[in-house]
């Protein structure tokens, strides 16, 4: 009898201890969730600027009902669509508290953890049709294991879907994203894949089909203000088909983005590679293009964009129409531009490469920019000379490649041959004129140019000259 009483006492003590641990861990889990949400919003602000980050995308905790063994949490993700109209995505989370959440134990995971989250998307006006395609079930489910010490693993599962919206049929194969978190949830790695995605206009018959999308990213934070991100994505093929014309097909697409942000300054590199571009029967070959930026002030760039958008809105015109600035508006734009140039940023195309079966042509442009003095009083030409601290242009054009490109414009063999002759004539005519002015150097079937502007001097294909002399040569080639 005494032995059984002792066993019962031990069980009671263990039970009370577990209840206390669960209550404490549940409290810690809530603090972790609130901290992660705040960190996510802060990171968006750092990447996009204060105004865009706050107004364009943010996440809020609408309700947090903490119980003893689990909590019910509701989130809203605020976004804007392509027209600037607000969108809301809502999530509901069933959060089982650690150290041994029942939901994790039932799935065979016996590792101690802070919480086991099972969240799903809720229906909103923005997602209602997506829900309807699932017969009312959630099209997105998220399972997250939140470890101790700021670690975690999250799996996002998207269900296959087919829906019709505004006369367009959308087919989605479903997909998944897996994310791992470390360093108090500040660092993460992610991978994702989607087998296919298509949009078909049921009236016109036009179709967009994307196959095998895969992506990965890695984000690390060395301190509160330094964030580094590397992202990449590949697509096997993207095809745009129309009953009225030949299909446009892009194959072996690759994208890479690298960025390092220190405070408000951003260094970034972006690259797109298209392994093959085809328009109907025409094989245009491959295209690769990259862009880089250094010392870019994100806040100043945001302010410049806001100012321009406000001027366009007051003028009641679309942004692509010709805009005539008043003196006051020009003064404000100059002020914002000077603020952007204060960090001495640089931008470049690094480089653009076009290849086909007969050769390749490429172009690269690098600009080092500087803040001008007395920007409000300078003439535009003087201002431009001060802003452009260093300009470097490299250009290479392959004659066989250009002739091949011209010939592919026509499918008829005889007409294709005539187009090739025309391409050769255009190349010879312009290259001869540019070569005569010393603007290009010809070696065999390749014409190239290397132009460097720095310290009010120009280096043209290895020959130093003044800016007026360079402009005179350029004008003689154009006239």
TrEMBL record:
<keyword id="KW-1133">Transmembrane helix</keyword>
<keyword id="KW-0472">Membrane</keyword>
<keyword id="KW-0812">Transmembrane</keyword>
<protein>
    <recommendedName>
        <fullName>DUF945 domain-containing protein</fullName>
    </recommendedName>
</protein>
<dbReference type="InterPro" id="IPR010352">
    <property type="entry name" value="DUF945"/>
</dbReference>
<feature type="transmembrane region" description="Helical">
    <location>
        <begin position="7"/>
        <end position="26"/>
    </location>
</feature>
<dbReference type="Pfam" id="PF06097">
    <property type="entry name" value="DUF945"/>
</dbReference>
